[in-house]
């Protein structure tokens, strides 16, 4: 089991992230997930530049968001990204919590699949490079 399964970032929504009801617009949650995902991938030295260098693209094929409580302007939040699947696809779960109270605000997940950049064929098993970066046996 890898010891780098999760990574957490802290962010504060900016004014331009709000919708007309003065809460964070629903689409920006995906951007926050992306920031946490990139930090998680950087932790194992397999962020998007390293993915491309390894010969694989990892498009997102599914993403889900469950909005639990509204996120407001200036509200510090912690966004945790966690690897939960990596054998045949890459699934990352997300959880957003209020930084002060720890109250859950949002949760979700994304699913990515490996695509060989030369043949453009989807891989039905995760390439060995991902398993190596995660520190798990192939």
Number of strands: 7
Count of individual helical segments? 3
Q: Order of strands across the biggest sheet?
A: 1-4-5-6-3
Strand content: 25-35%
Give the ordered list of helices and strands. EHHEEEEEEH
Chain-averaged pLDDT: 94
Q: Which structural class matches the secondary elements?
A: alpha+beta
* Helix content, binned percent: 10-25%
Regions with little confidence, pLDDT below 50 for 5+ residues: none
Assembly type: single chain
Straight-line N-to-C gap: 12 Å
| Shape by Cα distribution | elongated
Main beta-sheet strand count, sense and barrel state: 5 strands, antiparallel
Radius of gyration: 16 Å
Describe the overall structure:
The protein is an alpha+beta fold and 138 residues long. 21% of the residues lie in helices and 33% in strands. It has 3 helices and 7 strands, in the order E-H-H-E-E-E-E-E-E-H. The chain has helices spanning 28-43, 48-53, 128-134, and strands at 6-11, 56-57, 60-67, 77-85, 90-98, 104-112, 115-116. The protein has a 5-stranded antiparallel sheet with strand order 1-4-5-6-3, covered by helices on one side. The longest helix is centred in the first third of the chain and has 16 residues, at 28-43. It is elongated. The N and C termini lie close together (12 Å).
């Amino acid at each position: 089991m890898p010891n780098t399964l999760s990574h957490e970032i802290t962010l504060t929504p900016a004014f331009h992230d709000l919708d007309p009801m003065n809460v964070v617009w629903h689409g920006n949650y995906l951007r926050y997930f992306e920031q946490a995902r990139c930090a998680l991938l950087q932790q194992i030295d397999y962020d998007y530049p390293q993915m491309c260098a390894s010969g694989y693209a990892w498009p997102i094929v599914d993403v889900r968001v469950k909005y639990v409580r509204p996120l407001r302007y200036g509200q510090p939040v912690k966004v945790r990204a966690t690897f939960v699947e990596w054998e045949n696809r890459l699934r990352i779960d997300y959880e957003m919590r209020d930084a002060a109270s720890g109250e859950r605000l949002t949760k979700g997940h994304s699913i990515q699949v490996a695509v060989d950049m030369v043949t453009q064929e989807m891989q039905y098993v995760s390439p060995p490079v991902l398993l190596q970066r995660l520190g798990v046996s192939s």
